[in-house]
Amino acid sequence: MLILAGGAGTRMYPFTAKRPKPGVSFGARLKLVDIPLSNGLNSDISHIYVIVQNQADYLSNHFLGYHTGISQMRGEFINVLGPSGEEHGLFKTDADSILKLKSRILEHDFDVVVLCMADQIVKCDFRPVIEQLINTDADAAVVYKTVTLDEARGRLGVLKVERTKVRGFDEKPENPEPIEVDSNKCLANTAMYAMTKKAFKDMVNAMSHHHVHNKNLSSTGITWLCENRDVIAFNLEDASTSDLSKDELGYFADTGTIRSYFDTSMDLLKRPAGFNLYSSTWPIYTKASWPNSAAKLDCVNINGIILGLNTILQDQVTVNSGIVSDGVEIKKNTKIEYSILLPNSKIGENVYLKNVIVDEEVNIPKGINLSGDKPPKNVQNQEEILSLLKTNKFIPKIPVFSEGVLVIPEGIDFKKWKPEY
Known about the structure:
By secondary structure, the protein is an alpha/beta fold. It has ten helices and 27 strands.
């Protein structure tokens, strides 16, 4: 299994300033990479590579403890692959990462390889996908989700399918081709694939021949597969686990931007949840953490919360739809609404936060009032951040505003920065 995160994660800055995108916290106790990784482990896949652009050691440390020594003796592994000197610099795209790592990937003995992205929030049992691939003697399988034309337009790759055979693939078309049975819907590529080793090698060779280092995998390798090999389409709902509720069946979201990360996180708080973290039959695995004391709540008012370990909420704290991660402390008379507090952040007395994400290790002093609905004037827009990242210019440690969400970055100094309205 290959979990791809070969991009630089610029659209998730500032979270990716000190960690790779797969290592961004999610759901109070997890990392983003834990979701596709759990899909693999729950699907009985025991050889997993996570491909990252940088800071590979961060994820290597996270994976310690996932496998016991006995599992390692059996040859099972979860390894992180990143660019090294022989790969000639950083990866440009996910396709580029596969091209540069192909010799290290292909050195292992396998019959089928599963590929997925590190920023996807979905439950997918790959066993029926692989079974269908083998039973039909196909070269590859693409997992799809039925969506409206408006959902797909300019955002999602769209499959052209006859019966179960993929006959074509359009990368983010402005005018998606509808399916015959419903003129308002189409079949969207979820960027989850299974393919034989031969098909994988053929795809990589074709990508290398056409010099696709600056293009993504779906618009190059997957498009080539659909045009030149026998590829079947597999419905995500048929790859869902048996205990899913109606609301969770077929749930799929990516977290590639700040806004999508925020919205997907808020989905966890819905009743019933769009994505259930608490299934006993499809557990979400993560690294064990120490210390692991239970949360301590004083006299508080809560309406919708996901609470991590080692958290403290003091008297008169109000939380209305909040994700409070491991190690967070909220002092008295503070109100949190529709916000995410990442690990080890500290929130002072009489603070008000709404539509805010507080990065790891941030200390917000007492009396601060911050809202994504009405952001301060002295913040950075996400577009400005992307421009600075492209030119390698200095990025000041001040809040970042993106599509109605205000992000308080790690390293901010509230003695130097104060909100201006």
